[in-house]
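Final report, Chapter 2: Outcomes

The project's central promise was a pipeline that accepts a single protein chain and returns its three-dimensional structure in a standardized token representation, suitable for archiving and comparison. That pipeline is now operational. To close this chapter, we reproduce one record exactly as it appears in the project archive, with the input sequence first and the structure output second.
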Amino acid sequence: MASFQIPIEALTSRFNLAGRYESLRSQSVSSRFANLRPVSEFLDLKRLSKPANFSEIQTRVNYNLGYFSSNYAVVFVMLSIYSLLTNTRLLFVIILVVGGMYGIGKLGGRDLELGVARLTTSQLYTGLFVVAVPLGILASPISTALWLIGATGVSVLGHASFMDRPIENAFSEEAV
């Protein structure tokens, strides 16, 4: 039976995904959010319109992903916070692991003495691992991550698809 291969490069090359995220690695967080667009511009209902065809969707998505990239990052952060607040088990596990790692790190390599017991840092890390992994599995981080990917994708791509480019920018790229 012949194998079936999907040409991912042919599907993603139109969206310029490789070049779009190159600048993210070199930017700091403060410069990343320096070009945050105002909420009134981001949620301008007068610019919402149904695209005529798929080519127009591609044009809008390419333009809006670059223009509103910081706003879309804020949407992702807000959805991440929402997903952690609604999945309290996962939030508890994250706090437990971060707090445990911080507490073990505060020991500075010394053993922890609890009355009759003396625990090495290796035993403390193992205990944290033994407690955190089953709790982490019960907290369903995979379903939370998949929900976050889906909700962000629908929100960002939906906004980018329906938000029309400003009039002054729409005519600047047209050939005369």
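Archive annotation: The first helix runs from residue 8 to 12.
This record, like all others produced under the grant, will remain available to the consortium after the project formally closes.
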